[in-house]
Automatic annotation (TrEMBL):
It comes from Nonomuraea mangrovi. InterPro entries: Glutamate_decarboxylase, PyrdxlP-dep_de-COase, PyrdxlP-dep_Trfase, PyrdxlP-dep_Trfase_major. Its cofactor is pyridoxal 5'-phosphate. This is Glutamate decarboxylase. It is an enzyme of class 4 (lyase). Belongs to the group II decarboxylase family. One of its GO terms (molecular function) is glutamate decarboxylase activity. SUPFAM superfamilies: PLP-dependent transferases. It catalyses: L-glutamate + H(+) = 4-aminobutanoate + CO2.
Length: 464
């Protein structure tokens, strides 16, 4: 499916929506056109009912292990979101208070990520916009170091999110891909620090490490990557900034792995992004990007305008954006505090590990990660199972579960995995129901007359 929608043909644009006869008295004669603006208004109850009926087909969020996005917030948060939907984040003159809440959130996060006290940052629509801003800051800083005319490159792993390739393509930066290691009969799902350093040169605007991988939940070894870049600077004089894409981990590691050093405790880490709408526990769309020092953000990227009455500085890709998710993020910070976040994330991780243990016992499925980084894990089908990950995903879908199947990145693309994302609200009971369904699905595929066994593949994952 694409986010680009083609114009429907003339026959289809004339088609009407099917409307429940109970609402037919509330709509105008001639029905509701699907692709054309209706000629006149309809009753608000009818509009609500028609759209609700259609959205119902989207599937049950509680059974959705595919998405990282928040699918549940407390009623009080929803109330607050409703009250703030009309606040435009960009209009700081008119809504100084919501701008202040944004500033408090930036401060809380930079402190959580151990900045020495000179940090600067902002909210974004999500980690993708944060990646664009973080990448642009690195590109402008590199150019300021006197590289006009050269082609910049960004060193990223094949395990990074597509937003980094997007950044490179949109802003004409070479994406220098470091493959996931593949040696002998084994592979590692994390970036290799020496490989990273060997991909860098004078035109490297930065390196991106992930905390953790969208595909497997694994954290890149950020401190070791920082050390490799320190050695690179000492030996060859090439000073490469490190950005940590902590879309998920920024809201997990401070609570579950407080002694893991991945953040501004490492001087090499110049900027960090995170998604408020993932483990930040806020409905879409909100993300965050912060720099260790205000000097890491070149001021020629910040534009000045007085179009809204009063001088404003902006560093964003879009202009207008709702302030509601910012208020909701601040709500979670007040409501949960450090201990509350820790309790939520710990439960997610406990459930993830419970599922991994249960899946290991089923046989036929081999976990590649165990939920001990992000509460996310990937599982490959055993060679003798006789069924692909995609077939298993289909069979689970028929029972209501959404568990995506996909191929690992280049060099390991022949390996198909299922990914499980455990979010707030996914309980031990639900996990046990999923295990019971998985057991039955596996029994079906192994039954005589089930799918044929497929060819063996010798690779195994390296574990820590
Ligand atoms: C989800 C994700 C992104 C993109 O985040 P959005 O907030 O959805 O834009 C970027 N990087 C990683 C590692 C992610 O998991």
């Amino acid at each position: 499916m694409s986010n680009l929608h083609k114009r429907a043909g003339a026959d289809r644009s004339a088609a009407a929506l099917s409307v429940n006869p109970l609402y037919s008295g509330l709509i105008s004669e001639g029905g509701v056109p699907r692709y054309r603006l209706p000629d006149g208004p309809m009753h608000p109850d009818a509009a609500l009912a028609i759209i609700r009926d259609e959205l119902m087909m989207d599937g049950n969020a509680r059974l959705n292990l595919a998405t990282f996005s928040t699918t549940w917030m407390e009623p009080q948060a929803k109330e607050l979101i409703g009250e703030c939907l009309d606040r435009n984040m960009v209009d700081r003159e008119e809504y100084p208070q919501i701008a202040d809440l944004e500033g408090r959130c930036v401060n809380m996060l930079t402190e959580l990520w151990h900045d020495p006290g000179h940090g600067i940052g902002c909210s974004t629509a999500g980690s993708s916009e944060a990646a664009m801003l973080g990448g642009l800051a690195m590109k402008f800083a590199w150019r300021r170091r006197g590289h006009a005319g050269d082609r910049p490159n960004l060193v990223i792993g094949t395990n990074t999110h597509v937003c980094w390739q997007k950044f490179c393509r949109y802003w004409d930066v070479e994406a220098r891909l470091v493959p996931i290691r593949h040696h002998g009969g084994a592979f590692d799902l994390r970036l290799d620090p020496e490989d990273v350093a060997s991909h860098c040169d004078e035109n490297t605007i930065g390196v991106v490490a992930v905390l953790g991988s969208t595909q497997t939940g694994a954290y890149d070894p950020v401190a070791q990557i920082a050390a490799a870049l320190d050695r690179l600077e000492a030996e060859r004089g090439i000073d490469v900034p490190l950005h940590v894409d902590a879309a998920g981990g920024g809201f997990v590691a401070p609570f579950l792995q407080p002694s893991l050093v991945w953040d501004f405790r490492l001087p090499r880490v110049r900027s960090i992004n995170a998604s408020g709408h993932k483990f930040g526990l806020v409905y879409p769309a909100v993300g965050w990007v912060v720099w260790q020092d205000a000097a890491d953000l070149p001021d020629d990227l910040v534009l000045h305008t007085d179009v809204l009455g009063g001088p404003q500085e902006t560093f964003t890709l879009n202009f207008s954006r709702s302030g509601a998710p910012i208020a909701a993020q601040y709500y979670n910070f007040l409501r949960l505090g450090f201990d509350g976040y820790r309790a939520v994330q710990q439960t997610c991780q406990d459930v993830a590990r419970h599922l991994v243990a249960g899946i290991s016992e089923l046989g036929g499925l081999e976990p590649l990660t165990d939920g001990s980084d992000l509460p996310v894990f990937a599982v490959r089908t055993a060679d003798d199972l006789g069924c692909t990950a995609h077939e298993l995903s289909d069979r689970l879908r028929r029972r209501g579960w959404q568990v995506p199947a996909y191929h690992l990145p280049p060099a390991l693309e022949e390996i198909q995995v299922l990914r499980f994302v455990i979010r707030n609200g996914f309980s031990f009971d639900t996990a046990d129901k999923l295990l019971a369904d998985l057991r039955e699905v596996l029994r079906d595929v192994r039954a005589p007359g089930g799918p044929e066994p497929r060819a063996r593949h010798p690779l195994t994952a390296l574990t820590r």
